[in-house]
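#onboarding

Welcome to the new folks! Below is a worked example of what a typical request in this channel looks like: someone posts a single protein sequence, and someone else replies with the predicted structure as tokens. Don't worry about understanding the tokens yet, we'll cover that in week two.

Example request:
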Amino acid sequence: MTYSGFRVISEALRGQRGWKPVWRTPDPKPEYDIIIIGGGGHGLATAYNLAREHGLKNIAVLEKGYLGGGNVGRNTTIVRANYFLDGNSEFYSHSLKLWENMEQELNYNTMMSQRGILNLFHSDGQRDAFARRGNAMINQGDDAELLDQNGVRDLVPYLDFENTRFPIYGGLLHKRGGTARHDAVAWGYARGADRLGVDLIQNCEVTGIDIENGAVRGVQTTRGAICAKKIGMVVAGRSSQVAEMAGMRLPIESHVLQAFVTEGLKPVIDQVISFGMGHFYISQSDKGGLVFGGDLDFYASYAARGNLPMKEHVMEAGMTLMPMIGKAKVLRSWGGIMDMTPDGSPIIDRTDVQGLYINCGWCYGGFKAVPASGNVFAHLMATDTYHDAATKFRLDRFRTGRNLLDEEGTGSQHNLH
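Example response:
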């Protein structure tokens, strides 16, 4: 089943009776060549790429709940490639290129909107830092434009430019950045993987990993034992817990990151805007709601809910940047469980257990990384070699201290990333 404007009109005239389920609901087989633990954006994209790019067929994705029920549906939908350090810069540049072709490749509307991202700066030092970042982005082959205060005022005149404490000096504009519909991304990859023969098995929680003579043999699940030659762990904030099943201790802490959405409003915010002094970011959804967020809750937790002090902190930052937001009614908030590494950058690597691979530590960068994460992780699992865009995401950097990718420069502390 393919999607097109003609098909939408045709089904409307026929009472919508011709649509078929987007993917199958198979029972697990006794054995697979590859098992992906985690049915979120990264896991589904990995399975899709294993089948499409590498021609592998006997693959299963195991999800303890429903597909897309984790962090891929619990974020602020931002897509960008405005990273600075070698390693991160080329990876997210690779990811943005994949985003730009995703809808055509999957034949699925992910509502990709390259509306632009504006990062504000509020001091001379921040201006210099953003100028360096913009130059790095251009050298990488991406776009960046440094705006002065008047340039920002022309673009977003509703900000508080008279703020004495945090004056707006200017901003770095990344026009190819923007937003996408998070659940549609998961559904698109699920549909694509299913069409290529991947078994997507929901309500199947992994409870153990079988290891024999230093190599994986399969997993124990709530739906029975399943054998496999290779296993990929792609479970975001649950990475430490799943890795523990294989006797591993990862350099990861899990923290809650809250997000919020207001009632639907008329179009007012065209871009994604990031406040340089309050870690506040905001955009407007296609339904009119203002979608925004801020800092982590700053305590380790596996609970997908937030706390009141951080809600107040985020609201204060929003009011400081754009007082008009105070007129909007907040509809709901939610929390995602972030797998935070000491240097704020991900891990995509083999483990010491033969046939066991990990993909984790995405911190704030998980959603924007989905297509590239699936692409490079599938490459690693299929070929046992590192993709050129992910050579610096090795796990052993935390053992040696070399090649740490501390993008924010906040030091080796998980909760500062």
